[in-house]
Amino acid sequence: MSKSIIELVDGLSTNNMTVSMLRSLDFVIPGQWNNLVGFENTIRTVTGETDENIIQQVGERAIYLYNDRSQGYQRAMWLYQTVDRTDKALGAAALANKVGEKIPLLGFLNKVTPKADKAQTIDLTLKLVVELLAFCQINGIPGDSIGDFVASLSDYSGESLMRMVALVCVDGLIPFGPDFIQKALATLDRTSPQELEQNSTFQNISSDIPGNNSATKLNFIGESFNSVTGWMSDLVVSRGLTPQKVVSHLQGFIEVADDKLDYLAAFLDVSTNYYEHTGTQTLARRLIERAVAEI
């Protein structure tokens, strides 16, 4: 990794398109997500410490743990970054100067086009698999520990819970509609290993996905996504989530017509990096919690 954990946490934005999007999703889990930025500030917030000596010790230990390649922290960070950065170059530069403005989406339709359903499905399911893989890396358990991951979801909170909420809302409900789970599973069933191999995200993270070949990796992706369908369904039902409800909250910072939701999904794809942003926050929190426990 080219950047230290300090640089990564200090470099998190306090107000950009990603932050605006995540704040607009606060209605799903009110007050759960705080945009924690800055390494020292994160240490103080997570530990509640005011003693400068202890804060420094915690910071040094967290840095040591992150730099230790026998631990999985750097790999988890790479996974969060990679799943966000793939396929987002299109239109990103054009959108960068619009950050903070209320954007009429129609003006960008010539720069951002919706993905085909199959590509969108693969991206959705790969993001879920990256969450599972990063969870395993952070916790030092085998990458195929689906059961441990599913069990942990009931304990998800803060930035980790917000990431899963955004996955359901932005990569599920908006592009596919209320029956996104069934659509994704059906599309996965019709996806061949060869089609999976053509996906740029899969090409980047393939070596991290359990399986000896693309066919077994595709099975793992399907099994992973299927294992979380109950949790996702409960979230949608318990919060009364619909595409229209999600979009109505997003319209605090972006204007979009109801018949352009597939374009909105593509727009958010290229203009936000919520996996990397919240993933960095999750990683910093886990490192600091472990550092405190070890000091």
Explain the overall architecture.
65% of the residues lie in helices and 1% in strands. The chain has one domain (5-294). The protein has helices at residues 5-10, 17-24, 39-47, 52-67, 73-85, 92-96, 117-139, 146-152, 158-176, 180-189, 193-197, 200-205, 214-227, 229-238, 243-250, 261-271, 274-294, and strands at 103-104, 254-255. Helix 7 (117-139) packs across helix 10. The longest helix has 23 residues, at 117-139. Strands 1-2 form a two-stranded parallel sheet. The chain is globular. The mean pLDDT is 90. With 295 residues, it is mainly alpha-helical. The chain contains 17 helices and two strands.
Global mean pLDDT: 90
Largest sheet: 2 strands, parallel
Quickly count the helices. 17
Oligomerization: single chain
Name the poorly predicted regions. none
End-to-end gap: 25 Å
Shape: globular
Order of strands, widest sheet: 1-2
The amount of helix comes to 55-70%
What series of H and E elements makes up the topology?
Answer: HHHHHHEHHHHHHHHHEHH
Domain count: the total is 1
Q: Return the structural class.
A: mainly alpha
Please provide the count of β strands: 2
Any idea what the radius of gyration is? 19 Å
Q: Strand percentage, roughly? A: under 5%
